[in-house]
TrEMBL record:
Class of enzymatic activity (EC top level): hydrolase
Signal peptide from the UniProt entry: none
EC numbers for this chain: 3.4.21.4
UniProt GO cellular component terms: extracellular region
Protein name: trypsin
Keywords from the UniProt entry: Disulfide bond, Hydrolase, Protease, Secreted, Serine protease
A Pfam family that the UniProt record links to this protein: Trypsin
UniProt subcellular location: Secreted
GO biological process: protein processing
GO molecular function: serine-type endopeptidase activity
Amino acid sequence: MLFSAASSALSDKDGKEEWDRIVGGTKAPNGSAPYQVSLRYFGTRHFCGASIITTRVILTAAHCVDRMKPHYLIAVVGTNQLNSGGTLYPIRKIVRHEDYDNQVIKNDIALVFTLMEIRFGPNVDAIELNNEPVMPGEKLLLTGWGTTSYPGKAPNDLMRLELNAVSFEDCQEAHKDINQVFETQICALTKEGEGACHGDSGGPLVREGRQVGVVSWGLPCAKGKPDVYTKVMLGWLVAKVY
């Protein structure tokens, strides 16, 4: 069963489910991820993560905003706590990858355009994007407000988890009976008991301060299988942003 980050409930879907949370992580220090965004229904309920890439553009997963209307969403930036602080930005436009396939969860990437410019400061900033190859064993960083146990509730504090990149071949093998893995995806894992889950979807996967991936899907939750992330697609992003 996969899980959908855009919903608080789990749903059967050919053994797949998009990620919603971090399991086994630690509390992120305030200001350590100034690019982190909380996407919320009407400014209240957190349902997906995202990242700031320009003063008006936010990067997330396509499944997070599938069939969404811009006026449903509010982006909250500048805080590590879900219940306090931060600045709210209404959304004016959503652009999903035109070849997004929700059946096999392919091209799971989207842009969210804010109505007003995001004001940068000590706790709010864009993250640099990087689509250079990620090699097996490289250290990666995941941040998010996904639930910290399964089943469970989202934490108030932003969590972080260091992961190791997994080879395409090993990821394919691990998920061969669950879902297809594509070369446009990155896989990462530490050990059973650590990983992404409900609420983390759409959030940033970072290597040395640059974003390389977007949380997409996995086997809920922290079961010892690699998590799957959409690679940052610089060509597509540049075409849609500029």
